[in-house]
Structures are given as structure tokens and as C-alpha cells.
Design goal:
Chain lengths: 560, 326
């Protein structure tokens, strides 16, 4: 034992000697300042906070001083989004939404240079090569060629590592299998069983014909021109029809449209389904469809939906049931990002509202009808945004649901929600933000409750701010990314309810995801390889502290 | 007396003005703005500018303050950013639920506290006291959310005796507030949150009543009553308790004021749709008009109840003289 101790002591001495005098071997610049990772507080997102802490610890092996700084929600968003020169690194997430089944939205927005100043390019990656690839995939209408481009762009980002990608989370959903026929549920790629198709297909097994779901937070104002957050969208997509919908396979399919064709790269022809009715009994006409495509572009009255119509040059009717959309530029994702996103709104109700708003500061987003009118498979019965939303099946709809009502309970206390699932007050747990283990335990002890987990389209990551050195150095970013232990994060921080990520495209979107990209991180899990990357780029460790390459001064202030 | 009343009312107006101004400043000093709730890849600087303009947040702070004060004088609290409804309507929907929860719990807590306090003072030094006082203190000191969760676990999750939250069963429609108030469903949902609040609130009246009773029981008029041969019950309840009630009555008025704003935790645990929950949600989403409205209402009730307690004290106890009359 003594021998071993002596040996270890000598080894430590020799190691510190190496660290103490490498300056002879390699001249060095200033020491890298202490780096700060911004994160949501542990209470708000325990998984995210723990991932950041685990990663900060791992990076200390490179001679870095890294700390995690939790910030309350509003302040966190304010700094990350609007004070872009201020922070070093931040945790962040992109959530899964049906319209993100097409990779265009994220591929285009996350890293194109046009979005550096105030768009979604939070990290400030400025790469003409990336811009070219992102634009090319957007204009490529041939599916196979576009798939190749999307995979190429993922490989490119793997070499650049603008984010330390962490995990793609799994959606945890549970339901009472004595109340609902599990075989009647539809699994949507990247969304799971909690989706539009399940709600219209769900088959009751007992006299309980009300599907009662939960939401932890209240949705915002429900209107066809407002995006009311993830939970609110579950209700709005049932009430307002869209010309197309994202199918269970993740691809767009005609819905309120009978057919959608693209005769040229910049024209889209739509034939509207006939005999549809608004919930107030009026017929759905081609004028309503034209209005719905044009209204978000009226002035600045619909800021959230406006980007989805910004590529539309004009919409004209070509027959009593058909219309033609002319685009300003070719857009491969138009069917997904616009036609499957824009709600069909009744012109007889909304045209006067838009007219009235012309001379007012308010936007159409802040308007909520007393009983909102759509044409979808469910209609509103009552809405109390902080208590519950009650919808009932629309018997006149061509896709009439098998359940009587769809009820969303708003319950901020997640433990009480689990109790409600057990006692039968809710029969479909749709929004679970608590500890995965609690839910698994409940499912094990309650045979009636069945758990359904599915991989999400979204992802969680650490953003490296390239506006602040040394994050502008690709070698530095690659060394950091190599040491993010994604398997441990998925297992320990997320309790197994996540898979490792190295791309913004989830493996749930099998057609678009680059297979095995999570294992292609340069130097993955290898401390020596990461150190070598830094050494090759000129970084030096002195007294256990990482220094910039020779001649580089540390001019960036420490995050305060 | 009239001068005293006027003085108190003047004081009330001043306090309310300070509270309204502080509320305005406080919410605008918070980092971030409501547009941060909408961040998505489609969100551009123009989108943000349009939303801010829609919310009236593109104007200067001074301008916003003047509009705010002018609207307040007209009883206009603006429109909720996120719910698109008028703040007054949203508060009017939530306030009755809070008042009912508060009144039921306070009455239960004070009824229990007064009787138990009087009893404990009377039975001083026994085993009952050794058990009761620590128990009362423990429930008083226990956090409300913890008490609430314990009750939920025992009476809702395991046994299913009571619902886990909300004011009505899923999908239930009461039609009007009056109809809701007389529905069994509503009261069934009220039991657990009210019980939690009652357990939390009973400590103060109990201890206060006991302490005052102990003082009163040593007074000469009690000795006199005993000497007259009155029954023990009559001595304790009719003579001693009546005189010991005064501070408890004041505490009740103050408790009523404080509870309207202090139910935040219980309302969140039980998803009870009251003012406390409105406030929490509004603050979380930087819904300034709604948060301001809820905050103002809570402050208003507190300040008014304080004044009421003050005036009531003078009215109830002639010994409390008003400075102006001297």
C-alpha cells in the first residue's frame, strides 16, 4: 500500500511539474476567464440544471473554471434573447411541434447568418457554407435530393459544433386503459400518442365518453390568429380546421383541402373540400379559405402568424372550390410550415374584427370571441383559461370523433395531477413535467394506467456564444462538445426519459435524421483527445489553468 | 369621531396611492417583458415590436403611468395580455371564490380557536393542555403546501373521498355563479382547501384567546361572579370569554384582509380558481395588467380591512379613546 501511495505521490508531482513548466515548450496567452453557463433554476427544470452541472464538472478536466448560474424564467429569456453579447453559454431547448416534422423551420432558423442580430441564431454562427446548404434544402422540391442535403447539413454542423447538443427527450404520456382502447390511438412520429389523430379516433371502452386531459400551465387566449403555447394548441387544432395536417407519419396530407398540388416550384393549387360548415351553421366557402391565407398578412395585426404567409405573393380563386397560391420564392416546406399551420377562420366573423382593429393598437391575437367558431371536429362549449377548456364532438364533421367531449383540466400541482389520474378525475395524462420515476412507480402500482413514451422532435442543448472568445474558435467548441457525457445525462439527469443528441433533427424523424450522428461527435468521451484538440490549436495548460494561444489577450469580461 | 374617521380615510387614500404607484413600478422593474412568452423561430424583432405596440408597452414609462392612473380612476384595469379579457372581468370571476374560501376557513378556524382557547385557559396545566398547545403550534408552523399535500395524499389520492383540485368536477358547467354556489359539487371541492387553511389559521385565535382568557380569569369581576355562585360554564363563557374576545375580533378582521392575498399557496396546491392563483399565473407570464389588478385588489382589501379593524376596535371597546377627542 505504501508503495502505491509513494508511486501516486510521485506521479502527482511529475504531473504538476508538467503543468508548472509547459511555458518552455509552448508560449501562452492570457488565462481563459471563468466561464458561466446560464440555466433555469433547478426547481423549474431539474433535468436541465443537472445536465449543466454534470457538464461543467467534466470541463474542469480541460483546465477551465466553469460555473452554472440559475436565472428566473423571464430574466433568463431576456438575457439570452436580447442581450446577446453578455453571456458565454446557456442551456436552452427547442420543443417538438407537429409542424416541426419538416426539418426546414429549425434548419433554416437556427444557424443562418441573417438571424444573428435578432433571430434564432442565438449563438451567432456565421457560415456562408451553412447559409448555402440551408437555402438549398429549402428550395429543393425533390424529396430524395432534399434528404441528402439535410443529412449533409447535419454532418457540417457536427464539424462546427455551434451547440453542445445534449438529448432528445421522450414524451411521457399515460392513460387509463380500462377507459380507452389503446389500439385506437395513433402514434405520431416525434409527438407520440398525444396528438390530433388520437383525439379524433379514440374509442371508449365504457360509458365514460369524455376524454379528460391535463395541462400544468394555462394556455393563452384561444383564437385562430394566436399561437397559444403547446397546450393551447392541442385545443385550437381540434376546433379550427387547416387545409392540410401533418399525418401520423410526419408528412403533410390534405385535410380541409381535397387536394393540394404544386404545378411549379412557386405555385400551389388547392381544391377545398365541399359541404363543410362553421360551428355557427354557416357554410365554409372558398372566400373563407382565401381570407384565412391572407388575413395574417394584413398590417401588423397578426405578428405570430405573419411569418408563415410572408412568402405568399398572392392568393386567387380559380373556381367555386379551388384557389391558387403564388409564392415569392420556392419553398419545399410550404405545405408543412404554412398550409398545415394556418387555421381556417370564418370571414364573416373575422373580417369585421380586422376592420375594427385598423385604428387600434391591439392585434388580432388579443381578441377572443365569447364562443370561438371554427369548423373542426370539436367545438367549444366553455373556456376558463385557468380552470378548464370543454370541447364537444362536432356531429356534422366528416371526421366526427368517437368521444363525446374533450376536456382539459388546468392543474399547476403536478403531484395532485398524478393523484387525479389515479382517482379517475383525469383519464389521459398529457402534460407531465415531474420526476419520471414518480410516474413509472404509479404505473407499476396501478394496473389500469398505461404509460406510453415516445421520442420527441425537440431537443435540449448548450449554446456556445460565438460572439465571445474563445467560443469563436471551432477547436475550443469541439473540445467542449467531446466531453459532454450524453449517455449519463440521458440516464441520470433525465431518468432514462431521453436519448443522446448531436443534431437538431430527432431520430424520431427517421427520414431526415442522420443515422448514428450522436456517436460522431469529434473525440466523443475522450479527455485526451479533447486536450489534444486544444493543444493543437495552441492552447496551453499552466498550473492546471487553460490559457489562450500565444499572443491572445483575454478581453471579454466575465459574465456578471 | 368624524375627524378621526376622515383622518383614517385620508390615510387610506394615501396608502392606496403609494401601493398603486409601487405596483406600477415593481412590475416594470422586473426583467423581461410579456413577449418573452412567445419566443419561437418565427419570432422576429418586428414581431416583438408589433406585440409591444399592441400591449401599449412602446410608450414611455411616464406616459404609461399617466394612462394607468387615469384608467384606475375610471375603475378600468385594462386588458389581460395573455387572456385577452378585461382584468376587471377576470378578477370579478376569481374574487368570489377567494372570499368564500377565506370566509369559510376563517370562520371555522376562529370558531374552533375561540372555543378551544377558552377551554384550554380554563383547564390550565392538565394533560389536555400539554397535548393541545404543541399541536396547535405545530399546525400553525407547518407550511400550507405541506399540510395541503398531506391532506391530498390521505383523503384524495388514496381513498378518493375528495377531489384533487379545481372548483367543479371535470366538464361540469354551473351556468351562473349563483348556481355554482348552491351546487354540492362546489362545496365538495371546497372542503380540502378550506380544511388546509383552517388548520393553518386556527393557531392564532386559539393562543390569543387562551392568553387573554388567562388574564381575564384573574380579574376581580370573575371572582365576584364565582362568589355569586354562578355555574362554571356561565362564568367562563358569559363573563370571561365575552371580555376576552376583543383582541380576537381585531385579529379576525386583519386575518380576513391578509387571507385574501395569502391564499396563494393553498389556491395553487388545490387549483382553486381564486385571486391568489390569478396573481401567480400573471406574474409568471409577465401579464402586467392582470398582475397589477390582482395585486391592487389584494392590497386594497388588506388596507380597507386594516382600517375597519381600527375603527371597529374603537367602537367595540369604549376604553380605547380616540386621540382627537382628548
Amino acid at each position: 500500500m505504501k508503495c502505491l501511495g509513494l508511486f501516486a505521490g510521485l506521479a502527482a508531482l511529475s504531473l504538476s511539474a508538467v503543468h508548472a513548466q509547459p511555458a518552455h515548450a509552448q508560449p501562452a496567452g492570457d488565462a481563459v476567464r471563468p466561464l458561466v453557463i446560464l440555466a433555469q433554476p433547478q426547481a423549474a427544470s431539474p433535468q436541465e440544471f443537472q445536465s449543466a452541472e454534470m457538464t461543467a464538472e467534466a470541463w474542469k478536466q480541460l483546465g477551465l473554471k466553469v460555473s452554472v448560474r440559475p436565472l428566473p424564467g423571464q430574466q433568463f429569456s431576456q438575457i439570452v434573447w436580447y442581450e446577446r453579447n453578455r453571456w458565454d453559454m446557456t442551456t436552452w431547448q427547442m420543443v417538438g411541434r407537429p409542424e416541426r416534422s419538416d426539418p426546414d423551420e429549425l434548419t433554416y432558423n437556427l444557424f443562418v447568418s441573417a438571424n444573428i442580430a435578432n433571430g434564432y441564431n442565438l449563438v451567432g454562427l456565421n457560415s456562408p457554407e451553412y447559409d448555402r446548404l440551408a437555402q438549398a434544402q429549402r428550395e429543393e422540391l425533390d424529396l430524395t435530393k432534399r434528404q441528402a442535403l439535410i443529412r449533409e447539413v447535419q454532418e457540417y454542423i457536427n464539424t462546427q459544433q455551434p451547440y453542445g447538443f445534449m438529448v432528445h427527450p421522450k414524451n411521457l404520456v399515460a392513460f387509463n386503459q380500462t377507459v380507452w382502447d389503446a389500439s385506437s390511438m395513433k402514434v405520431q412520429a416525434g409527438i407520440g400518442v398525444r396528438n390530433f389523430w388520437t383525439w379524433i379516433n379514440l374509442k371508449p371502452l365504457t360509458a365514460q365518453k369524455d376524454v379528460i386531459v391535463n395541462s400544468v400551465s394555462p394556455p393563452t387566449n384561444l383564437s385562430p390568429f394566436n399561437i397559444p403555447g403547446a397546450q393551447g394548441s392541442w385545443a385550437t387544432e381540434l376546433v379550427w380546421d387547416r387545409l392540410m395536417r401533418i399525418g401520423p407519419d410526419g408528412l403533410p396530407q390534405p385535410w380541409a383541402a381535397e387536394s393540394v398540388t404544386r404545378p411549379t416550384p412557386t405555385t400551389v393549387d388547392v381544391v377545398l373540400r365541399q359541404n363543410m360548415k362553421w360551428h355557427d351553421g354557416q357554410p365554409v366557402t372558398i372566400d373563407d379559405a382565401v381570407f384565412s391565407l391572407e388575413a395574417p398578412g394584413y398590417g401588423d395585426k397578426s405578428p405570430m402568424y405573419r411569418p408563415f404567409v410572408s412568402n405568399i405573393a398572392k392568393v386567387e380563386t380559380t373556381g367555386p372550390w379551388s384557389l391558387r397560391i403564388t409564392l415569392k420564392r420556392p419553398d419545399a416546406a410550404f405545405l408543412v410550415s404554412s398550409l398545415a399551420k394556418l387555421n381556417l377562420a370564418p370571414k364573416h366573423i373575422w373580417a369585421p374584427i380586422f376592420e375594427d382593429l385598423k385604428n387600434k393598437p391591439e392585434t388580432a391575437e388579443s381578441i377572443m370571441e365569447k364562443v370561438p367558431v371554427g369548423s373542426g371536429p370539436f367545438k367549444f362549449v366553455s373556456v376558463k383559461l385557468t380552470e378548464q377548456i370543454v370541447l364537444e364532438a362536432n356531429p356534422d364533421h366528416w371526421a366526427k370523433p368517437r368521444v363525446n367531449r374533450w376536456i382539459m383540466r388546468i392543474q399547476p400541482n403536478i403531484e395532485a395531477t398524478l393523484g387525479a389520474l389515479k382517482s379517475g378525475e383525469i383519464n389521459f395524462l398529457t402534460d407531465y413535467t415531474g420526476d419520471p420515476e414518480l410516474l413509472t412507480r404509479l404505473v407499476k402500482s396501478t394496473p389500469d394506467i398505461k404509460l406510453s413514451d415516445s421520442l420527441d422532435i425537440g431537443f435540449r442543448f448548450l449554446a456556445y456564444n460565438e460572439r465571445r472568445p474563445p467560443f469563436n474558435d471551432v477547436a475550443f467548441r469541439r473540445a467542449l462538445s467531446a466531453l459532454i457525457d450524453r449517455d449519463a445525462i440521458a440516464e441520470d439527469a433525465y431518468g432514462g426519459a431521453a436519448v443522446p443528441a448531436n443534431s437538431w433533427i430527432s431520430p424520431a424523424l427517421a427520414f431526415w435524421a442522420e443515422p448514428g450522428i450522436d456517436k460522431k461527435v469529434p473525440g466523443l468521451g475522450n479527455v485526451e483527445a479533447a486536450r489534444k484538440m486544444l493543444k493543437d490549436a495552441g492552447y496551453v495548460v499552466i498550473n492546471g489553468e487553460l490559457h489562450y494561444p500565444a499572443g491572445v489577450k483575454e478581453t471579454t469580461p466575465v459574465y456578471q | 369621531m368624524a375627524r378621526h374617521l376622515l383622518g383614517r380615510l385620508g390615510h387610506l387614500v394615501l396608502v392606496l396611492w403609494v401601493v398603486t404607484t409601487l405596483t406600477f413600478v415593481m412590475f416594470r422593474l422586473m426583467p423581461g417583458d410579456p413577449t418573452l412568452n412567445f419566443l419561437s423561430p418565427s419570432f422576429s424583432q418586428e414581431t416583438r415590436a408589433a406585440l409591444l405596440k399592441g400591449f401599449g408597452l412602446d410608450r414611455s414609462l411616464g406616459e404609461q403611468y399617466l394612462i394607468y392612473l387615469r384608467n384606475l380612476l375610471h375603475g378600468e384595469l385594462g386588458q389581460s395580455f395573455l387572456q385577452g379579457k378585461s382584468v376587471v372581468a377576470l378578477l370579478a370571476e376569481a374574487l368570489p371564490n377567494t372570499i368564500i374560501l377565506t370566509l369559510v376557513s376563517l370562520c371555522a378556524a376562529y370558531a374552533f380557536g375561540i372555543v378551544a382557547g377558552a377551554f384550554l385557559a380554563f383547564r390550565r396545566g392538565g394533560v389536555v393542555e400539554a397535548v393541545a398547545i404543541p399541536s396547535a403550534l405545530a399546525t400553525r408552523a407547518a407550511p400550507e403546501f405541506w399540510l395541503g399535500m398531506l391532506l391530498l395524499a390521505g383523503l384524495a389520492f388514496q381513498t378518493g373521498l375528495f377531489p384533487t383540485g379545481g372548483a367543479l368536477s371535470p366538464g361540469a358547467e354551473a351556468g351562473s355563479f349563483g348556481a355554482m354556489l348552491i351546487s354540492r359539487d362546489y362545496w365538495w371541492h371546497l372542503i380540502l382547501p378550506a380544511l388546509t387553511l383552517t388548520l393553518y389559521l386556527q393557531g392564532l385565535p386559539l393562543l390569543l384567546m387562551r392568553a387573554t382568557m388567562l388574564e381575564v380569569l384573574n380579574d376581580e369581576f370573575i371572582v365576584m361572579a364565582r362568589m355569586k355562585g354562578l355555574s362554571r360554564w356561565s362564568v367562563v363563557m358569559r363573563h370571561a370569554a365575552r371580555n376576552a374576545l376583543l383582541p380576537v375580533a381585531t385579529a379576525f378582521a386583519l386575518g380576513l384582509g391578509a387571507s385574501v392575498g395569502g391564499n396563494v399557496v393553498v389556491e395553487t396546491v388545490f387549483a382553486w380558481p381564486g385571486i391568489g392563483r390569478v396573481l401567480v399565473q400573471a406574474v409568471q407570464s409577465a401579464d402586467y395588467p392582470l398582475a397589477q389588478g390582482a395585486f391592487l385588489l389584494i392590497a386594497f382589501v388588506l388596507v380597507v380591512m386594516n382600517t375597519v379593524a381600527d375603527l371597529a376596535y374603537a367602537a367595540l371597546d369604549p376604553r380605547v379613546s380616540v386621540g382627537a377627542q382628548r
